[in-house]
């Protein structure tokens, strides 16, 4: 969410403010975005496990920001145009868990600092590596 909180994608509703991206010249920049619509989909789910043990479940069409740009979770289906997809050589950029696992309370000051740090990544701020993507036996509903 744009205020630093996390929410399951299935719980996001029109009117919620999230962090999105906008094109500025030939670059994409983070920006606040208001959710304007919502719909449900049913797709195969994949588990993306990060080097720090964080697990994310997403459809194969979902894209994550990596050190080499936006990557889909899975390659395109045979016969479809090729597209960039996650490999174990990629590192994800973005929000992390915001201190949730450590039991931290996300104050407004913490959220502002976290978002500022995420946008202006420091040299010592290492992205998180990706482990092999696993196909799940469940259907992802968003």
Protein described:
By secondary structure, this protein is mainly β. It has one helix and nine strands; from the N terminus they run E-E-E-E-E-E-E-H-E-E. The strands form four sheets. It has a three-stranded antiparallel beta sheet with strand order 4-3-9, with no helix packed on it. A two-stranded antiparallel ribbon has the order 1-2. A hairpin with a 2-residue loop joins strand 1 and strand 2. The radius of gyration is 16 Å and the shape is globular. The protein starts with 16 loop residues before the first strand and ends with a strand.
Care to give the gist of this entry?
By secondary structure, the protein is mainly β. It is 8% helix and 35% strand.
Sequence-ordered SSE layout with sheet pairings:
Elements: E1 17-24, E2 27-34, E3 42-49, E4 55-59, E5 63-66, E6 69-72, E7 91-92, H1 108-119, E8 128-129, E9 134-141
Antiparallel strand pairs: 1-2, 3-4, 3-9, 5-6, 7-8
